[in-house]
């Protein structure tokens, strides 16, 4: 499938249709999904990445904490942060090896209790309770697999799958965000060994994208994220969103606000419908899917009265 110049078949994730692709090299940069993608090409391929689960709780701390970012060392001797965000604090995280369903990751009761316990241990006067949690969430950090360590290794590795019997496929493992320029250079080095560049060499810009700058300037320090219609339209046109959740959670951060973006849903859905050509039915479906999604990931209902079990 991946010999140079040959055509391979792939499943398009959005349309579920098979598409033929002609390529010299495949880069598998799917983070925690890396093993699954490798195994669609060859089921016996050994794991290259392990997932470490990181759960967070979001709380409103007393006024004295406002705008203060705090780093503590927890009782497991690991760093934990309390990050200020729109009158709230994001508190995380734990690091637990995870091999469950990647599309449905959420913080468990044990994890949220543990996070509360660690914060209360560091700041006993806070006496945070489960009902103080506004919402929780969790994500999976892709770390390079290491047979001798269940937590994997922090090393950033570009693996050549030729050694596993699949030529012309590279997979990246272990790349944190803060390290992205170093990682990009590392990948580029491997790619240029295998493909001759067809464009002149360019120096990457070290500045933020135009959209990032606009977003940064438009954010007020208030609870609400005020994003103008103009910026919203620009993001919808230029940042290739497919679902309403892409804009609210993955492009603008509106969904990480104190009301999880719920109040912005009708307005953003209307603008998206206009620019993405959605009919009324699709718009309604997107709004319903977003509400369902945030209910599942943030689990607000669990902390209001504690009636839902894990
Ligand atoms: C809770 C948490 C907190 C973190 N905090 C920090 C931090 O403070 N600083 C830091 O530097 N790092 C942090 N990390 C780690 C960082 O997020 C990851 O290391 C980084 O995102 C890895 O980048 P990536 O591009 O390899 O993978 P990802 O960011 O996971 O991107 C992989 C992409 O591949 C896509 N994909 C999956 N399968 C397919 C497919 N079949 N076809 C097409 N696309 C596909 C996914 O949708 C996803 O967009 C944190 C991680 C977590 C979970």
Structure characterization notes:
- The protein is an alpha+beta fold and 310 residues long.
- Helix content is 32%, strand content 21%.
- The longest helix has 19 residues, at 280-298.
- The chain is globular and about 60 Å long.
- It starts with 6 loop residues before the first strand and ends in a 7-residue tail after the last helix.
- The model has no long low-confidence stretch (mean pLDDT 88).
- The structure holds flavin-adenine dinucleotide.
Task: Estimate percent helicity.
Answer: 25-40%
Tell me, rounded to a whole number, the average pLDDT.
Answer: 88
Strand content: 15-25%
Oligomer: single chain
CATH architecture term of the largest domain: 2-Layer Sandwich
- Characterize the overall form: globular
Keywords:
310 residues; alpha+beta; D-Amino Acid Oxidase, Chain A, domain 2; 3 domains; six-stranded antiparallel sheet; three-stranded mixed sheet; 32% helix; globular; binds flavin-adenine dinucleotide
Write the layout of secondary structure elements.
Layout: E1 7-11, E2 18-22, E3 26-28, H1 34-41, E4 49-59, E5 70-73, E6 79-85, E7 88-92, E8 96-98, H2 109-122, E9 133-144, E10 157-160, E11 169-173, H3 180-194, H4 210-218, H5 229-238, H6 244-251, H7 265-276, H8 280-298, H9 300-303
Parallel strand pairs: 3-11
Antiparallel strand pairs: 1-2, 4-7, 4-8, 4-9, 5-6, 6-7, 10-11
Bound molecules: flavin-adenine dinucleotide (FAD).
């Amino acid at each position: 499938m991946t010999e140079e110049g040959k055509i391979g078949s792939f499943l398009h994730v959005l349309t579920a249709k098979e598409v033929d692709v002609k390529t010299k090299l495949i880069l598998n940069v799917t983070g925690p999904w890396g093993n699954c993608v490798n195994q669609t090409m060859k089921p016996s391929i050994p794991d290259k990445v392990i997932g470490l689960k990181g759960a967070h709780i979001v709380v409103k701390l007393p006024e004295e904490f406002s705008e203060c970012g705090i780093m503590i060392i927890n009782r497991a001797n690991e760093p934990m942060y309390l990050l200020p965000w729109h009158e709230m604090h994001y508190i995380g995280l734990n690091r637990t090896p995870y091999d469950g369903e990647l599309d449905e990751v959420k913080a468990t009761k044990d994890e949220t209790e543990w996070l509360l316990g660690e914060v209360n241990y560091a700041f006993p006067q806070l006496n945070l309770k489960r009902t103080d949690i506004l919402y929780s969430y969790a994500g999976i950090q892709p770390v390079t697999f290491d047979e001798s360590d269940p937590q994997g290794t922090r090393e950033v590795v570009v693996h050549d799958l030729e050694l596993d019997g699949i030529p012309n496929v590279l997979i990246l493992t272990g790349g944190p965000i803060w390290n992205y320029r170093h990682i990009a250079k590392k990948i580029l080095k491997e790619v240029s060994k295998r493909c001759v560049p067809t464009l002149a060499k360019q120096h990457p810009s070290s500045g933020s994208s135009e959209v990032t700058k606009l977003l940064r300037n438009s954010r007020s320090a208030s609870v609400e994220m005020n994003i103008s219609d103009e910026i919203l339209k620009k993001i919808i046109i230029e940042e290739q969103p497919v679902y309403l959740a892409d804009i609210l959670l993955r492009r603008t951060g509106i969904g990480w606000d104190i009301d999880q973006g719920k109040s912005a849903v009708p307005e953003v859905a209307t603008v998206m419908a206009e620019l993405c050509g959605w009919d009324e039915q699709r718009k309604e479906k997107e709004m319903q899917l977003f509400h369902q999604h945030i209910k599942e990931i943030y689990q607000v209902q669990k902390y209001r009265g504690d009636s839902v079990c894990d």
